[in-house]
Structures are given as structure tokens and as C-alpha cells.
Amino acid sequence: MELAQVRLLVTDFAACYRFYGDVLGLKPQSGSAEGPYEKFSPAVGSAGIALQDRSMMAEVLDEVGETATGHRSLVVLRVDALDAYCEEITLRGATVLHGPVRLTDRMRVAHLKDPEGNLVELQEWLLLRG
């Protein structure tokens, strides 16, 4: 088994596309800024984040509904220099809600939300520093 992607069901596709592409700096697969689907990949690694228009999935599964309630996901991205990355994405429109702070002796984190309210955790792995 292989993890292909984490897919987020969103209602404002264009805003989320801009957030994951322009603000966080992930690379879109096809450039389909209007949706209803797009996969984003970081510069390193094989995992990806995909966006799908929530109404499209609601046509397939009635229980999905048109809007989400509560936190149902947490996207986790590893970065090499957390403080610098947080400064960079803040200049591009992100709002860091928490951190950067040390979470454990092995990791520092910061938290933000995408335009749909999905939580995003940025991790800096301290063990990789040597």
C-alpha cells in the first residue's frame, strides 16, 4: 500500500489553491486554479496534498454536505528552517496562529489555517540538524 495524497474537500477552491500554491509554495500538478481538483507537491518527497471541490464529492456521498463543521484534518508539512519559513509565508498572506515553538526535544512547530479553516502544522525536525 502507498499513500497517494491527503485530499481536502473545500468550498472556496480558488482561495485554497492560492494558499497552498502561492502562500505555502507547493507546486500545483496541472495549474487548474478554478478546480474542481488539483494536487500540490513539495519540492522534496513524494507525498502530496490535493484539493477537491466539496460540492463535487457531495454529489457522490450525500453525508459530505455542502459545508464542514469542526476540525476534521491536520495537514503536516516539514520545513528546514521554521522561523525563516514562517516569516516568508507571513509576507505572502499567511497568519501564524501558534509558534514557532519547541513541541518536543526532537521537533519545533507552528500552526496556521488555510482559507477553509483546515489546520496546517509546520514542523522543523531538530534531529536532522545533526
TrEMBL record:
The keyword Oxidoreductase applies. One of its GO terms (molecular function) is dioxygenase activity. Residues 2-125 form the VOC domain. The keyword Zinc-finger does not apply. Transmembrane segments: none annotated. Keywords: Dioxygenase, Metal-binding, Oxidoreductase. This is Extradiol dioxygenase.
